[in-house]
Amino acid sequence: MFDISLQGPQHRLCNGASRRDFLRVGGLAALGLSLPGLLRTTAAAAESPSLPRPKPTAKSVILIYLGGGLSHHDTFDLKPDAPEEIRGKYKPIPTSVPGLMVGELLPQVARVMDKVCLVRSGSHENDHHETATNWVLSGRFGSAFGDYPSMGAVVAHETGFTGLLPPYVATPKNPSFSWELGKSAWLGGRYESFKAGDPNQPNYHVRDLSVDQPLSQKTLERRKSLLAAVDSLAGRVKGDDQMATYDEFQRHAAEMVLSTEAQSAFDMNREPAEMRDRYGRTDFGQGCLLARRLIERGVKFVTVTNGGWDHHKKIWNGLEKRVPVFDQCYSALISDMHERGLLNDTLVLVMGEFGRTPKINKDAGRDHWGRAGSLLFAGAGVRGGKVVGATDKEGAFVTDRPVRPADVAFTVFNALGINPRKQLITPEGRPVEILDQGGRIDELYSA
Amino acid sequence: MRLLKPRNYGTHLFAICLALLAALSLPAVAESTAERTPGAQDAASSAVPSFRQDVVPIFTRFGCNAGSCHGKLAGQNGFKLSLRGYAPELDYDSLTAELGSRRIDFADPEASLLIAKPLGKVPHEGGKRFADDSRAAKVLLEWVKARAPGAEAADADPTSLEIGGPGDQTAKIGQKVQLVVNAHYPDGRVRDVTWLTQFFSNDASTVSVTPDGVATALRPGATDIRAHFQGLVQVVTFTIPYDNVIDPALYSQRNNFIDEHVMAKLAALRLAPSELCDDATFIRRASVDTIGALPTPDEIRAFLADTRTDKRARLIDDLLGRPQFIDYWTQQLADLLQNRKERDHDVRGAKGVRAFHSWLRGKVAANRPWDEIARDVITATGDVVHNPQVGYYVTTVGEKHAEESDVVDSVAQAFLGTRVGCARCHNHPLEKYTQDDYYHFAAFFSEMTMRRQSAQVTTTELVPSSDREQQQQKRIADLEAALATVQLSDDKDAPRKLAEATKRLEDARKELTRMQLEVGVTQPRTGRRMSPAPLDRSPMHFEPGQDPRVPLAAWITDSKNPAFSGAMVNRLWKHFMGVGLVEPVDDLRSSNPPSNPALWNALNNAFVSHHFDLREMMRVILTSRSYQLSSTTLAENEQDHGFYSHYFVRRLPAEVMADAIASATGVPDPYAGYPLGVRATQLPDPAVDSYFLTIFGRPERVTACACERGTEVTLPQLLYLNNGDDLQAKLKSPDCKLTAMLKQTGDDDELIDRLFRLTVSRPPADAQRAAVKKELAAGDAREDVYRDLLWALINSKEFTFNH
Description:
The complex is a heterodimer of chains A (447) and B (803). Chain A starts with 17 loop residues before the first helix and ends in a 14-residue tail after the last strand. Chain A is an alpha/beta fold and 447 residues long. Chain A has helices at residues 18-29, 84-87, 107-112, 129-138, 151-159, 217-230, 241-258, 260-265, 273-279, 283-296, 315-339, 405-415, and strands at residues 60-66, 92-94, 101-103, 116-122, 168-171, 194-195, 301-306, 346-351, 355-356, 368-369, 373-378, 386-388, 390-391, 398-400, 423-425, 431-433. The radius of gyration of chain A is 22 Å and the shape is globular. Chain A is 30% helix and 14% strand. With 803 residues, chain B is an alpha+beta fold. A 4-stranded mixed β-sheet of chain B has the order 2-10-9-6. In chain B, strands 1-4-5 form a 3-stranded antiparallel β-sheet, with no helix packed on it. In chain B, α7 (279-291) packs parallel to α9 (311-320) and α19 crosses α21 (614-623). The longest helix of chain B is centred in the middle third of the chain and has 24 residues, at 494-517. Chain B is globular, with a radius of gyration of 32 Å. Chains A and B meet through α1, β6, α6, α7 and β16 of A and α1, β16, α23, α24 and α28 of B.
């Protein structure tokens, strides 16, 4: 029960309380959603006069989410001089950046650190999976009246469908509506992530997108014309948001189903076997590869979730199972994207909801620790080979340049050219800034 | 509107409730300069400002004690105030006792941090809150100069607020209204507190309001402006009519009292009512809403052919008596009562979930009134086999103590439509509920003990007394037995032993009574013991040893408790009308009044006078003309989303749509653990695996909140309908009704007609018939064309929406 898996309601979090606790808050949260989108049509918004719309540096974002909370002590923020019960068992190894050391379980990542900016000062004060997850994914601390929309949902809201594919996709694991993947909250279901499933499955396809027996062109055309002919509700009811959404998604669904381009985006068999091997034949590895395929095709925001980092017990076993998988797929993603030139305009972000406690507990594990954690940024102008921020000698508290969830989200929105202070209107007509706090992490970009 | 810029986040879950308020509108750094009409005694003009009545309200008015600032549990930068001033004594202590004399400096009053900080004279993260010559600054200075007198008993809080002026009003777009707020005190004093009042708009896009209380009408519609002062809330309703010219005769057609009130509101807003819907639409709409199923082609034929003038009323009676009605409304109530298998330790298993479902089904079938069902559930006692409603506590309390579990929130939300969760950690920001109220309410459930047993051993049982009382009762039984033994003894010490045994027994009985009298839970913040008390703080009498839930259930279901009837009336209204009179549907509070108060009162009176008869209330709603209006919008009402000028369309709920597709195709969905043919609206257990029900928003029943049900339209839903293997398989199945129909008849007109009736519940229009025939004439296989027609009908909004 100490293996947290953030991939579905069937899983349980370590504190044994989660989903229900979440819903106690999140349930209230959806308060606006039970309104049939009353005012959503007016969700137009005002640009904040105090902050002009930023110039975009990134076309897309890939968020690699390490659900449960990565142990920074054992990976990116080693404390070799600390007592054994803090420093743990792993030795630092050198990286492609002189002077920068990472944990010995990360030999491949070590070789791409020159393209990565390591932030060692991620920090907040919440040690609760759901609350912290929603916080870091949205950049705003949720309230009893509702959690805030995640970054991906905001991006979907701000950009809409720009091509055939949905703007916000999450992988792996289908079809659970798991909150970890980044909820749309009051923005509504139409901005939920599109669940792409597990691309490591042998006969992987996106449910209901590609089917066992594709329909003939003739059938599709006939269906289209019959549908247009029979629906007498169209045009009779004006001003209904739910209906407008239905029309919009009906069109997108039909286009996606028809489009070989959309289908092929998810066709992992189009990747050479060597490329698939390079990322690793795991759901995490293939998820990263799919993310690359999707952003190549114009998807704005891809979340690759990987659960199981909540190592309260026997952390060495857990890390030795998980870190090598991450080592392979993350290094493959960075180097592959670099080789393809994609890293120039894609921001790749790695984080979990918090770091872990300095002291190894009686069960040989580490517990939740929001006050310090490591994050990785790469691409879209981020300066590689750099370290931002620092923690104290025990890795417990940030001593330099704290980076708050709002700062991370601000940086992401800023990179995509979305004004983080833009006011959106909730279904109840309440004006809410995308972010009420935070600022761009300038150190990511400076020399 | 500028927000405070705290750089520090709320650090605990505790703080989250207030983030809304923080986000919503911390009052701007501005203060009214408008002179107020005197006639009201005012602290600024009186000798010494009162801490409780002047200083604390300043903290609230200017956001100092907001949840995002010093009001959060941890305080802000070392200075903590009680959230929105709910504990003035604590605030006084933090100001005067902590940090020596820095916060209040009698030697140099203007240097007091209390004054220098909000004036921005020393660095203040919250910035400058008010100007040097402002009234707030003067009051604070006066108070310090008077050597900071503390809260005194004579400083009674106001008992009510009144928004002066014309009250509820009709305004033109662009019109500005200065609101004036008077506080009434127990001694009869009335004081103008406008400058200390916080103003909020319930819909700022319709009517905005400044921190000074200037309301501006922005667009047509209606909304409420709330005034908050010292924990009191008062609202004023603004109606801004649309720019329409409507024939008054349109408002005169009425079936019952509902229409009277709906039409009055529409007339006030100058929104036109749509026409009455046609018969085909009505039978579909009423069937979907009432029994959760489409009408059959035969029912449609009969209804359309019926020429009696009261045929709609007859249909309504018929629907309310159907077995599917029982299925559908059992499911609705089971959602509300969270009937599910508690994840971790539900000893009942799926069997217990089914048993509770059957129990509820029996109540719905027998048309038991809502107050009776509520009492049965709230006072549930005994073993889960004979009293399946005990399952309510298995899921809501689980293995926790009542006050730590979900039961308090659940009972309040399910039966009273009230959200008390905020008050678990601090006083409710929008309601009168204090943290004490929460724990007083939780205390009603403190006497329950769940004897959990594995189903293999024996049944789990809910015992309505605490563990220690039960131990004491056992001890008394032992002492009684001992006494009996002594009584029988002819020992020479017998009299002495008898006296001792009697004394011991009496002591034990006294101890039990003492235990029973101190029923309650501990309030975690104050450590004080909270005895059971209802949310309205009305006194309640208990007999020692009585299950406190019995008087609680009586209080909750009392016909004089407006929240009990209101919660159900609003749910029923929303179910049939699409939008609650109060939204969110289960968030009744004085600061969130109904959109049509006259209708609200009339409906509640009707529910009470019909003795909480659910079917009767549905009949009243269904027979109203308002329910029967067309969904087709007019230019004069298409902007209306909340005043019932037309029927508000909505996507079919998950279970209803699953059943509708199954009935239209004739291919049932398999549900693991249930015989083939069991419909989605009959499923007792929300955990039954179904991709369809999941993506279409079936609630998991983890909370009592109506918001758990997903009503959104999403892309996976459309992909499912457009291209999904499940639907394709149904269309191609040999069991598909279409397959048999193709064999039965070669008459295209008849086939087209039947497919339309099966799906969109009406005959095809001529143009639609022609469109299908044109496809048939193209020469492709007939069955392929018809399969595509069935696909198109199922994918049409006319099918997937109730309209």
